[in-house]
């Protein structure tokens, strides 16, 4: 469970390294952008893994749960 919590914190702290939303925390990426990435294919490595997790979170309406970790 601790590893999953770390991943959720990474969604809050990791910033998009490129593209239209460069510099924005992953959790703040618009849902349509994350859906577009899912359709095109997520990048390799940790960023792709986190974007996949973010996709599932946004798809299932769980973004508020993650945002509670900010406090």
The profile of the biggest β sheet is: none
Q: Whole-Å distance between the termini?
A: 19 Å
Mean pLDDT: 92
Show unreliable segments: none
Secondary structure tally: strands: 0
| Structural class category | mainly alpha
The radius of gyration computed from the alpha-carbon positions, rounded to a whole number of angstroms, is: 11 Å
User: Which descriptor suits the 3D outline?
Assistant: globular
Number of domains: 1
Q: How many individual helices?
A: 4
Account of the 3D structure:
The model has no long low-confidence stretch (mean pLDDT 92). The two termini are 19 Å apart. With 71 residues, this protein is mainly α. It is built from 4 helices and no strands. The chain has one domain. It is 59% helix and 0% strand.
Ordered list of secondary-structure elements with their pairings:
Elements: H1 2-13, H2 31-40, H3 45-59, H4 63-67
Helix pairs in contact: 2-3
What's a concise summary of this model?
This protein is 59% helix and 0% strand. The chain is mainly alpha-helical and 71 residues long.
Give the tags.
4 helices, single chain, 71 residues
């Amino acid at each position: 469970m601790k590893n999953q919590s770390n991943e959720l914190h990474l969604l809050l702290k990791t910033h998009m390294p490129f593209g239209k939303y460069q510099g924005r925390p992953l959790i703040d990426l618009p849902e349509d952008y994350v859906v577009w990435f899912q359709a095109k294919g997520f990048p390799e490595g940790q960023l792709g893994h986190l974007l996949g997790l973010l996709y599932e979170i946004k798809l299932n309406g769980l973004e508020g749960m993650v945002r509670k970790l900010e406090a």
